[in-house]
Design brief:
The protein has 162 residues and is an alpha/beta fold. The chain has helices at 13-25, 47-58, 81-91, 142-156, and strands at residues 3-6, 30-34, 67-71, 94-95, 99-103, 106-110, 126-127, 138-141. A four-stranded parallel β-sheet has the order 1-2-3-4. The chain has a two-stranded antiparallel sheet with strand order 5-6.
Length: 162
């Protein structure tokens, strides 16, 4: 079994097409998109336009013969998380934000959070240090979130079936 991981395509449909073509040409059964799925240009950087990109541009490319795993990134609006969750089954992908997947003998943790950035949008940011006091950051640090999620993954065995 082969898989490919890519991230930060930022709505570049040509790059998505290349990933899908590469996977098909090389008999890759699983594609993992690790965040920053949607456009971030000034015009498209709204929850509505990002949702339209997902629905009208990305979803039609998804081949139900492949395992497609998706994590959201700091340039993807969190308000579209429920849209992705609701679309999984009908489109043919798995969203694994804050979940783990056991695949090919390994655990993959879908952790969408990033440390503090200078950007305006803070949907997926957490403090990277306990004493960091950036504006609008969650109380939980990256370390606390990852360790607690990691422990939960082992103890509760939260898996997505592929």
């Amino acid at each position: 079994m082969k898989f490919i991981f890519t991230a930060d395509l930022h709505g570049n449909i040509l790059q998505y097409e290349k990933v899908f073509m590469y996977a098909e040409k090389n008999d890759i059964s699983t594609i993992i998109f690790g965040g920053d799925l949607t456009p971030k240009d000034e015009k498209s950087r709204t929850p509505f336009f990002q949702r339209m990109f997902l629905k009208e541009s990305l979803f039609p490319l998804i081949n139900k013969n492949k395992n497609i795993l998706i994590i959201m990134g700091n340039d993807d609006f969190r308000s579209n998380e429920s849209f992705l969750q609701d679309s999984q089954e009908s489109v043919g992908f798995k969203l694994f934000n804050n979940q783990s997947v056991f695949l090919y003998g390994f655990y993959f943790a879908g952790y969408p959070f990033v440390p503090y950035t200078p950007f305006v949008w803070k949907d997926w940011e957490k403090r990277d240090l306990e004493n960091h006091t950036g504006r609008n950051l969650r109380k939980e640090t990256l370390k606390e979130g990852f360790i607690s999620k990691g422990d939960d993954f082992k103890i509760k065995k939260i898996f997505l079936k592929i």
